[in-house]
Amino acid sequence: MLKLTNLTVNYGKFEALRDISLNVEQGELVVLLGANGAGKSTLFKAISGLVKPVKGEYLFNGNKVIGVSPDKMVASGVVQCAEGRMLFPQMSVYENLKMGGFVHRKDKNGMKKSLEEVYDLFPILRDKKDDPAGSLSGGQQQMVAIGRALMAKPKLLMLDEPSLGLAPLIVEQMFGIIKQINENGVTVLLAEQNASAALSISTRGYVIESGKIVMSGSKEELFNNDEIRKAYIGA
Ligand code: ATP
Predict the structure, then answer these.
(1) Residue nearest to atom 24 of ligand 1 (CA)
(2) ipTM reported for the complex surpasses 0.95
(3) Residue 34 CA, closest ligand 1 atom number
(4) What pTM was computed for the model?
Protein backbone atom coordinates (compact mmCIF):
# COMPACT_ATOMS: atom_id res chain seq x y z
CA MET A 1 0.00 0.00 0.00
CA LEU A 2 2.72 2.46 1.05
CA LYS A 3 6.26 2.20 -0.28
CA LEU A 4 8.99 4.72 0.41
CA THR A 5 12.42 4.34 -1.17
CA ASN A 6 15.40 6.46 -0.13
CA LEU A 7 13.26 9.39 0.94
CA THR A 8 15.30 12.40 2.03
CA VAL A 9 13.85 15.58 3.55
CA ASN A 10 15.75 18.77 4.32
CA TYR A 11 14.79 21.80 6.38
CA GLY A 12 17.13 24.33 4.79
CA LYS A 13 20.60 22.85 5.23
CA PHE A 14 19.46 20.44 7.94
CA GLU A 15 18.87 16.89 6.75
CA ALA A 16 15.84 15.78 8.81
CA LEU A 17 15.31 12.45 7.01
CA ARG A 18 17.94 10.54 5.13
CA ASP A 19 17.34 7.68 2.70
CA ILE A 20 14.22 6.38 4.43
CA SER A 21 12.97 3.14 2.92
CA LEU A 22 9.84 1.73 4.43
CA ASN A 23 6.74 -0.16 3.38
CA VAL A 24 3.33 -0.82 4.87
CA GLU A 25 1.07 -3.50 3.43
CA GLN A 26 -2.69 -3.35 3.41
CA GLY A 27 -4.18 -4.41 6.75
CA GLU A 28 -0.96 -4.06 8.75
CA LEU A 29 -0.41 -2.11 11.95
CA VAL A 30 3.17 -0.90 11.72
CA VAL A 31 4.96 0.95 14.52
CA LEU A 32 7.55 3.66 14.04
CA LEU A 33 9.66 3.95 17.19
CA GLY A 34 11.86 6.93 17.85
CA ALA A 35 12.89 9.41 20.51
CA ASN A 36 12.01 13.13 20.49
CA GLY A 37 13.41 14.78 17.41
CA ALA A 38 14.22 11.49 15.61
CA GLY A 39 12.10 12.52 12.62
CA LYS A 40 8.78 10.72 13.12
CA SER A 41 6.60 13.80 12.59
CA THR A 42 8.66 14.87 9.58
CA LEU A 43 8.18 11.45 8.03
CA PHE A 44 4.41 11.71 8.56
CA LYS A 45 4.43 15.19 7.03
CA ALA A 46 6.29 13.85 4.01
CA ILE A 47 3.78 11.01 3.61
CA SER A 48 0.87 13.49 3.94
CA GLY A 49 2.37 15.81 1.33
CA LEU A 50 2.99 18.61 3.84
CA VAL A 51 6.75 18.63 3.23
CA LYS A 52 8.34 17.75 -0.07
CA PRO A 53 11.25 15.30 -0.12
CA VAL A 54 14.36 16.41 -2.00
CA LYS A 55 15.09 12.84 -3.05
CA GLY A 56 13.51 9.42 -3.21
CA GLU A 57 10.45 7.65 -4.44
CA TYR A 58 7.04 7.45 -2.79
CA LEU A 59 4.30 5.11 -3.97
CA PHE A 60 0.78 4.84 -2.56
CA ASN A 61 -1.28 1.95 -3.93
CA GLY A 62 1.19 1.75 -6.80
CA ASN A 63 0.90 5.44 -7.79
CA LYS A 64 3.81 7.88 -7.62
CA VAL A 65 2.66 10.58 -5.20
CA ILE A 66 5.64 12.84 -4.49
CA GLY A 67 4.46 16.44 -4.79
CA VAL A 68 0.75 15.55 -4.54
CA SER A 69 -1.06 18.14 -2.37
CA PRO A 70 -2.14 17.22 1.17
CA ASP A 71 -5.88 17.53 0.38
CA LYS A 72 -5.51 15.14 -2.56
CA MET A 73 -3.59 12.71 -0.35
CA VAL A 74 -6.47 12.81 2.17
CA ALA A 75 -8.98 12.25 -0.63
CA SER A 76 -6.96 9.22 -1.75
CA GLY A 77 -7.09 7.79 1.78
CA VAL A 78 -3.89 8.95 3.50
CA VAL A 79 -5.02 10.60 6.73
CA GLN A 80 -2.89 11.83 9.58
CA CYS A 81 -3.82 12.41 13.21
CA ALA A 82 -1.16 14.90 14.27
CA GLU A 83 0.74 14.99 17.55
CA GLY A 84 -0.86 17.35 20.06
CA ARG A 85 -4.41 16.66 18.83
CA MET A 86 -4.90 20.09 17.21
CA LEU A 87 -8.57 20.41 18.14
CA PHE A 88 -10.63 23.58 18.04
CA PRO A 89 -11.22 23.85 21.81
CA GLN A 90 -14.18 26.25 21.73
CA MET A 91 -16.05 24.30 19.10
CA SER A 92 -18.22 21.34 20.05
CA VAL A 93 -17.12 17.74 19.75
CA TYR A 94 -19.61 17.34 16.87
CA GLU A 95 -18.21 20.37 14.99
CA ASN A 96 -14.65 19.10 15.43
CA LEU A 97 -15.61 15.69 14.09
CA LYS A 98 -17.50 17.22 11.18
CA MET A 99 -14.36 19.06 10.08
CA GLY A 100 -12.72 15.70 9.40
CA GLY A 101 -15.63 14.72 7.17
CA PHE A 102 -15.04 17.24 4.39
CA VAL A 103 -14.60 14.34 1.97
CA HIS A 104 -18.39 13.84 2.40
CA ARG A 105 -19.27 17.48 1.71
CA LYS A 106 -21.60 16.48 -1.13
CA ASP A 107 -22.92 13.41 0.63
CA LYS A 108 -24.97 14.08 3.78
CA ASN A 109 -25.70 10.39 4.35
CA GLY A 110 -22.00 9.52 4.11
CA MET A 111 -21.27 12.14 6.76
CA LYS A 112 -24.02 10.77 9.03
CA LYS A 113 -22.82 7.21 8.61
CA SER A 114 -19.19 8.11 9.41
CA LEU A 115 -20.32 10.07 12.44
CA GLU A 116 -22.32 7.11 13.74
CA GLU A 117 -19.30 4.83 13.23
CA VAL A 118 -17.14 7.22 15.26
CA TYR A 119 -19.78 7.46 18.02
CA ASP A 120 -20.04 3.64 18.09
CA LEU A 121 -16.29 3.39 18.52
CA PHE A 122 -16.20 6.15 21.17
CA PRO A 123 -19.66 6.14 22.87
CA ILE A 124 -18.55 8.87 25.31
CA LEU A 125 -18.28 11.28 22.37
CA ARG A 126 -21.95 10.74 21.56
CA ASP A 127 -22.80 11.80 25.15
CA LYS A 128 -20.52 14.82 24.90
CA LYS A 129 -21.20 15.79 21.31
CA ASP A 130 -22.44 19.30 22.20
CA ASP A 131 -19.70 20.06 24.75
CA PRO A 132 -16.74 22.27 23.78
CA ALA A 133 -13.87 19.95 22.83
CA GLY A 134 -11.58 21.89 25.18
CA SER A 135 -13.70 20.88 28.20
CA LEU A 136 -12.99 17.15 27.69
CA SER A 137 -10.30 15.12 29.47
CA GLY A 138 -7.00 14.45 27.67
CA GLY A 139 -8.04 10.92 26.74
CA GLN A 140 -11.40 12.09 25.41
CA GLN A 141 -9.72 14.83 23.38
CA GLN A 142 -7.45 12.20 21.85
CA MET A 143 -10.59 10.24 20.93
CA VAL A 144 -11.96 13.35 19.17
CA ALA A 145 -8.69 13.73 17.27
CA ILE A 146 -8.71 10.08 16.16
CA GLY A 147 -12.46 10.28 15.44
CA ARG A 148 -11.93 13.35 13.27
CA ALA A 149 -9.27 11.48 11.27
CA LEU A 150 -11.64 8.51 10.86
CA MET A 151 -14.34 10.85 9.51
CA ALA A 152 -12.12 11.24 6.42
CA LYS A 153 -12.46 7.50 5.66
CA PRO A 154 -8.75 6.64 5.80
CA LYS A 155 -7.24 3.70 4.01
CA LEU A 156 -3.94 4.46 5.75
CA LEU A 157 -4.27 6.14 9.15
CA MET A 158 -1.11 7.69 10.57
CA LEU A 159 -1.21 8.32 14.31
CA ASP A 160 1.51 10.55 15.77
CA GLU A 161 2.09 9.82 19.47
CA PRO A 162 -1.53 9.18 20.48
CA SER A 163 -0.47 8.21 24.02
CA LEU A 164 1.33 11.49 24.72
CA GLY A 165 0.38 12.96 28.10
CA LEU A 166 -2.22 10.31 28.92
CA ALA A 167 -2.47 8.34 32.19
CA PRO A 168 -1.35 4.68 31.96
CA LEU A 169 -4.87 3.26 32.21
CA ILE A 170 -6.11 5.56 29.44
CA VAL A 171 -3.08 4.67 27.31
CA GLU A 172 -4.03 1.01 27.56
CA GLN A 173 -7.60 1.83 26.52
CA MET A 174 -6.34 3.98 23.62
CA PHE A 175 -4.13 1.20 22.25
CA GLY A 176 -7.08 -1.21 22.50
CA ILE A 177 -9.11 1.18 20.35
CA ILE A 178 -6.28 1.57 17.82
CA LYS A 179 -6.12 -2.22 17.50
CA GLN A 180 -9.88 -2.30 16.97
CA ILE A 181 -9.66 0.38 14.24
CA ASN A 182 -7.04 -1.78 12.51
CA GLU A 183 -9.20 -4.89 12.85
CA ASN A 184 -12.08 -2.92 11.31
CA GLY A 185 -9.97 -2.76 8.12
CA VAL A 186 -7.90 0.44 8.41
CA THR A 187 -4.16 0.09 7.81
CA VAL A 188 -2.27 1.91 10.58
CA LEU A 189 1.15 3.51 10.85
CA LEU A 190 1.72 4.42 14.48
CA ALA A 191 4.54 6.69 15.67
CA GLU A 192 5.25 6.20 19.35
CA GLN A 193 7.75 6.58 22.13
CA ASN A 194 5.69 4.19 24.26
CA ALA A 195 7.38 1.22 22.61
CA SER A 196 6.04 -1.54 24.77
CA ALA A 197 2.34 -0.72 24.34
CA ALA A 198 2.74 0.13 20.65
CA LEU A 199 4.67 -3.04 19.77
CA SER A 200 2.21 -5.22 21.63
CA ILE A 201 -0.62 -4.30 19.20
CA SER A 202 1.57 -4.15 16.08
CA THR A 203 2.51 -6.59 13.37
CA ARG A 204 6.03 -5.19 12.97
CA GLY A 205 8.00 -2.01 13.31
CA TYR A 206 10.79 0.34 12.32
CA VAL A 207 13.17 2.29 14.54
CA ILE A 208 14.18 5.79 13.48
CA GLU A 209 17.17 7.64 14.95
CA SER A 210 18.49 11.02 13.78
CA GLY A 211 16.44 10.83 10.58
CA LYS A 212 17.53 7.33 9.60
CA ILE A 213 15.90 3.92 9.87
CA VAL A 214 18.36 1.99 12.06
CA MET A 215 16.39 -1.20 12.54
CA SER A 216 13.26 -2.98 11.39
CA GLY A 217 11.68 -6.28 12.26
CA SER A 218 8.74 -8.24 13.55
CA LYS A 219 7.22 -7.28 16.86
CA GLU A 220 9.04 -10.22 18.52
CA GLU A 221 12.41 -9.29 16.98
CA LEU A 222 12.11 -5.72 18.24
CA PHE A 223 10.78 -6.74 21.66
CA ASN A 224 13.67 -9.17 22.16
CA ASN A 225 16.41 -6.86 20.95
CA ASP A 226 18.60 -5.72 23.86
CA GLU A 227 19.32 -2.28 22.39
CA ILE A 228 15.64 -1.63 21.74
CA ARG A 229 14.77 -2.79 25.24
CA LYS A 230 17.41 -0.47 26.76
CA ALA A 231 16.54 2.55 24.63
CA TYR A 232 12.77 2.33 24.34
CA ILE A 233 11.35 -0.19 26.78
CA GLY A 234 13.57 0.37 29.81
CA ALA A 235 14.04 -3.22 30.91
P1 ATP B 1 8.82 14.84 18.34
O2 ATP B 1 8.13 13.63 18.81
O3 ATP B 1 9.56 15.56 19.43
O4 ATP B 1 7.97 15.73 17.48
P5 ATP B 1 9.95 13.72 15.98
O6 ATP B 1 10.62 12.39 15.97
O7 ATP B 1 8.57 13.78 15.48
O8 ATP B 1 10.01 14.31 17.42
P9 ATP B 1 10.52 15.82 14.09
O10 ATP B 1 9.52 16.77 14.64
O11 ATP B 1 10.23 15.17 12.80
O12 ATP B 1 10.88 14.70 15.17
O13 ATP B 1 11.92 16.59 13.96
C14 ATP B 1 13.08 16.01 13.37
C15 ATP B 1 14.19 17.02 13.37
O16 ATP B 1 13.86 18.08 12.46
C17 ATP B 1 14.42 17.68 14.73
O18 ATP B 1 15.81 17.88 14.88
C19 ATP B 1 13.70 19.00 14.61
O20 ATP B 1 14.31 19.98 15.43
C21 ATP B 1 13.86 19.34 13.13
N22 ATP B 1 12.73 20.10 12.61
C23 ATP B 1 11.42 19.75 12.67
N24 ATP B 1 10.66 20.67 12.02
C25 ATP B 1 11.50 21.62 11.57
C26 ATP B 1 11.34 22.82 10.82
N27 ATP B 1 10.14 23.24 10.40
N28 ATP B 1 12.46 23.55 10.51
C29 ATP B 1 13.67 23.13 10.89
N30 ATP B 1 13.92 22.00 11.59
C31 ATP B 1 12.84 21.26 11.93
Answers:
(1) 42
(2) no
(3) 6
(4) 0.93
